[in-house]
Specification:
This protein is α/β, with parallel strands linked by helices. The protein folds into 2 domains: 5-129, Orthogonal Bundle (Arc Repressor Mutant, subunit A); 147-295, no CATH class. 55% of the residues lie in helices and 9% in strands. The protein has helices at 5-31, 36-46, 56-63, 67-79, 101-129, 132-138, 144-153, 202-208, 215-226, 231-240, 260-277, 281-295, and strands at 83-87, 95-99, 156-160, 172-175, 193-194, 247-251. The strands form 2 sheets. It has a 4-stranded parallel beta sheet with strand order 3-6-4-5, covered by helices on one side. The longest helix has 29 residues, at 101-129.
Length: 302
């Protein structure tokens, strides 16, 4: 089935309308002294369904940011007096985010304007979307709810070795630290496996030293390691052996937000998403890796 010209015109109108809305939104945020990223952060905190506030990991999901980028955004917003970090009352190791009174007032002012603008935009989008559903089905495109369900099924979670939730977690639980955690007996561990091969190298771990100021550079260097052997192959093997229920990466690090496990979870999700987009990609990558290893073998002497 050929896509008619009218469908392209509708799509152009939709994209144009959204871009105009985003530009207008940025201008409104600037008038109250906020950047667009700060506005989105405040909205992610206020709109979170749990009154205790979201974690940085949840904020990263809302804003489609990598974990270390979300940490940097939160650090800057806290320094500007827009948000505060609060320890969870039930689990003191969990940090949640809350708005300050000043930022809450700015967000309420912005939100009132945005609600009015969205009501106008909703009417335009509603008319634009009419007639696109038959084209959607005719071309076999995956519906949005199916995409979200597939993504949720492949989520990579994070936990600490002492978290009580590990006992009830039905996903595969894997320790991803280079060293075995102190105080945990191997026969009493709440996780299923230990894959130290995917952890940051000893050199990188010692350089980082859990210094918050070094986290961004640590995350970059760790990503480089995960893109090279042997860590890359070890990560592929870890993902290959994970069940459909998903995977929980376990670490003994106290600062979960700035941990190697948090970076590893991001990279793992990116690889899983790549496999969904191109199911043969992982297989071809493994084949090329095997061929590369074979080519490096010394010739047999005769």
């Amino acid at each position: 089935m050929t896509i008619p010209q009218s469908a392209y015109e509708r799509l152009l109108a939709l994209r144009t309308g959204l871009r105009h809305f985003l530009r207008w939104s940025e201008q409104q945020a600037a008038e109250v002294g906020l950047t667009a990223a700060q506005h989105q952060l405040l909205l992610a905190i206020k709109g979170h369904s749990d009154p205790r506030g979201p974690t940085i990991g949840e904020v990263a999901d809302y804003l489609l940011l990598r974990h270390h980028s979300a940490v940097g955004l939160v650090d800057r917003a806290e320094a500007a007096g827009l948000i505060s970090r609060q320890r969870d009352e039930d689990d003191r190791r969990v940090v949640r985010l809350q708005l300050t009174p000043e930022s809450a007032a700015r967000l309420e002012q912005l939100s009132a304007l945005h609600i009015e603008e969205l009501e106008r935009l909703a009417a335009e989008i509603g008319s634009i979307s009419e007639g696109l559903a038959p084209l959607h089905e005719a071309h076999g495109l995956q519906r949005a709810q199916e995409v979200r369900a597939a993504t949720a099924a492949r989520r990579v979670g994070l936990a600490r070795v002492w978290d009580e939730s590990l006992r009830s977690d039905r996903r595969r639980k894997v320790l991803v630290d280079r060293l075995w955690p102190r105080g945990i007996r191997r026969d009493e561990a709440a996780f299923d496996d230990w894959r130290k091969e995917v952890a940051p190298s000893t050199e990188l771990r010692r350089w980082y030293g859990h210094d918050p100021d070094r986290f961004t550079e640590f995350a970059r260097r760790y990503r480089v390691e995960l893109g090279s052997e042997p860590a890359s192959g070890a990560l592929d093997a870890l993902l290959d052996g994970s069940p459909a229920e998903g995977l929980t990466l376990v670490t003994a690090t106290k600062d979960l937000e700035r941990s190697g496990a948090a970076v590893l979870a991001e990279v793992a999700e990116e690889r899983l998403e790549g496999r969904v987009a191109s199911p043969d990609a992982g297989r071809h990558l493994r084949r090329s890796r095997v061929r590369s290893q074979v080519s490096r073998k010394p010739p047999r002497r005769v």
